[in-house]
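Hi U.,

Before I forget, here's the chain from the pilot set. I'm dumping it here mostly so it's searchable later in email.
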Amino acid sequence: MGQVLILLFFACLFLGVPVALTMGMAGLGAILYEGTLTPLMAAQRMFAGIDSFPLMAVPFFILAAELMTAFGLTNALLRFSNDLVGHIRGGLGHVNVLVSMFFAGISGSALADAAGPSAIVMRMMREAGYERNYAGALSAATATIGPIVPPSILMVVYAISDSRVTVAGLFLAGILPGVLLGIALAAANHWISVRRGYRGREHRATAGELTRSGAAALPALLMPILILGGILGGVFTPTEAGAVASAYALLLAVVMRVASWRSTSQVFVRAAIVTSSVLLIVSMASIFAWLLAYLQIPQTLAAAIGGLTDDPLTVLILLAVFALVCGLFIDTLPALIILTPVLAPIAHQFGIDPRQFAMMLVLNLAIGMVTPPVGPVLFVISTVGRLRLEAISRAVLPLLAAEVVVLLLVIFVPAVSTAIPNFFGYSN
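Structure:
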């Protein structure tokens, strides 16, 4: 049965079947082949996978990001970032990094960032004389900050798949890795800008200009503070935080008089379409993940790793390499749902902190979003920027190296993932 499941999965991937249908077809095919399980198990697991209160946070965060982008509220973040760091060497590259960090606190999605603020800054960089493929590569790399800085859709899904962690704990665990990721990409951009002669803008923002742009961006900047503050203060749950974020974004649009009934309805339709695609992937992946657990794949893999070493750090490195390889060929969300129930018990068995492992896996798969052949963020940027995928894949290599450095810090320094949650009293 296990062989049939894996063979069908890779056969469908090779034939170009969408990854959600690939997992569902492979799971159903394996159930039919096995014979003793009823096909109704597939339908039951599909609904069980999305019948979750914490998962309701996902559509709300998607809606909040759509509202902020559609009504131009993220443009204020772009102006403030440009005033703040635009004058530094490679200034627009630093703007790209900073605005992605700000927007990550709103969207929690790399694809939303890549299609929104990152795409805007990419066009600005090209107009300012930056090499077009490098502008696209940096925009793709900065978009990966989205799943790391809270609120993160991937962390919500991870917490549903692993009962050892909470959504709030993972949100806090992502703060420091997200900041380090931004610093690493900014350092890489500075190094490349020095080598290629990219300069910042000639005019440095005055204190007055910086104050005005900061005041305009303040409502958007308050959203992540509102989300985290409400969760940590016990005012609302992470799921309710998503609803609060959506209501806050809609209220801003109304107060600023940039919303209309027609535009608002279009935003809700787009958010519903994105949400449907996410939930379809989650439901189909739930079948696949349940079958892996039913076939005791985690126990088999743990026994194999235990035969190689009993050192927790070595085990974490092996799991990281395995996840990185999987991220090259499987899309991020399905990979997370499949790998979490397989690898998380192994990490727990060897005494690895569940928050550290979670951050390793999420960051690992986020990096996979900008690595070919799957790399969904690369596809978005190449489409928006009308760039050749091969050219962006080459240009992104030094930026990937910077991201791998942060991944190694997460692996070798547990405090990177655990210090802030511990400070706030979250043991998981």
